[in-house]
Design goal:
Number of strands: 2
Number of domains: 1
Helix content: 55-70%
Shape: globular
CATH topology: Arc Repressor Mutant, subunit A
Largest sheet: 2 strands, antiparallel
Low-confidence stretches: none
CATH class: Mainly Alpha
Number of helices: 5
Strand content: 5-15%
Length: 98
């Protein structure tokens, strides 16, 4: 399903990852969780993962066993602007009227 966020910014793997992490910004995720939630393959995620870390869009949070967990870096100014855009424009569209 193409979302308004993807329509506005393009339906790329990086946008899918950002959308998934913005929606669940309070939580941290394993690489497998991110790939599944963003509806992309792990191989595709690995291709963009280093860029997301180097630009500090995501950050490692903790390790559980062999799995490292990551979350959206809400202290990054670019990420804060994306969250504002998402919350002001995208979230109101998702409200369901009963």
């Amino acid at each position: 399903m193409e979302t308004l966020f993807r329509k506005a910014l393009g339906d790329t793997p990086k946008i899918r990852v950002l959308e998934f992490l913005i929606e669940g910004r309070e939580l941290d995720y394993s690489i497998s969780d991110i790939a599944e939630g963003a509806e992309i393959g792990r191989t595709t995620l690995f291709r963009i993962f280093d860029d997301l870390l180097k630009t500090k869009i995501i950050m490692p949070t903790r390790q559980i066993g062999n799995a490292k967990l990551y979350k959206l870096n809400i202290d990054n100014g670019f990420v804060r602007k994306l969250i504002e855009l998402f919350d002001e424009i995208i979230m109101p569209k998702k409200k369901v009227v009963a």
